[in-house]
Amino acid sequence: MMHCSGLMLIVMLVAYSLASPLPKPMPFPEISSLSFLQKSVVDYDRNVQLNLKQADPEVSPGMWEGDIAGLSFDTYYTWRLGLRFEVFPERRWKNATVPYHISHKYSSIDRETIQTALYTIGLMTCIDFVPYDGDAEDYLLIWPVEEPAGCWSFIGRTGGQQVLSLQPPDSQGPKCLGGPGKAIHETLHALGIFHEQSRADRDDYVTLNRENVIKPFLHNFAKQSLVNTTYDFEYDYASIMHYGTHFFSAGKDKPTLVPKRRDARIGQRDGLSRTDCYKVNKLYGCFERSPYEKLKYESFCDILGL
């Protein structure tokens, strides 16, 4: 009798296992993606590359403007501070929903930092970050890429697996995860937002000291043409998407960008500014969903924005 009961238990377990779906394998960066990424790295002189590795992790990857993957001179000048989704509708995340997966290589503390960044954006905007279920065609894979290391992202939805790199802390410092700020910055790139100092009207608000910029990196301070300027918002010194005063600087006493407003500070990586918040909400139509949601997200921007 006991033998029969044991057999029945085995049969039931086997039947249950066959009826239950197999767990989805954890995603890894695809080889094709990594090969494409290498083409995003500018072929700087070896000495310049060595200096980059000692720089801010938003600068060290050696991509366009330091941390933007997949761009060239040609594609850059066809876009705006935020992608024109009426021209590039395929770059918008569908239904303002972003499936994501955080690499198992991160420590629990680093995972919490990344989750905080996603939660912050999700709270202040209508962007819905959902865990990758193994079936979504397009998803964000947050991974500590070793080469090129640093903090970097593509602009907007690229389709399929989309890598966003956040270098974890090491013996030299916190890198991209000393707080949620840099993770927010790179995620905004993935949503379609460019750097603030790329605006066509940049020179009205900050002074670019060209002589203080390491020469091979001067192109990273290019402005977009006036016809490509987007959004009905004032220039935002407080934007989390703004360069700091010493990005690509030739020395600690050589600022590359200086605000023209005396009390202004640039380069904060603490959180979304009020304008950052409005920008994302407008880009994804969050204000247009209903009067209630317009009031809700405007309130979050006004109260929580820096």
From TrEMBL:
Residues 1-19 form the signal peptide. PROSITE patterns: ASTACIN. Binds 1 zinc ion per subunit. Its cofactor is Zn(2+). One of its GO terms (biological process) is proteolysis. Zn(2+) binds at H185, H189, H195. Its EC number is 3.4.24.-. SMART domains: ZnMc (SM00235). Coiled coil: none annotated. It is an enzyme of class 3 (hydrolase). Gene3D superfamilies: Collagenase (Catalytic Domain) (3.40.390.10). This is Metalloendopeptidase. It comes from Daphnia magna.
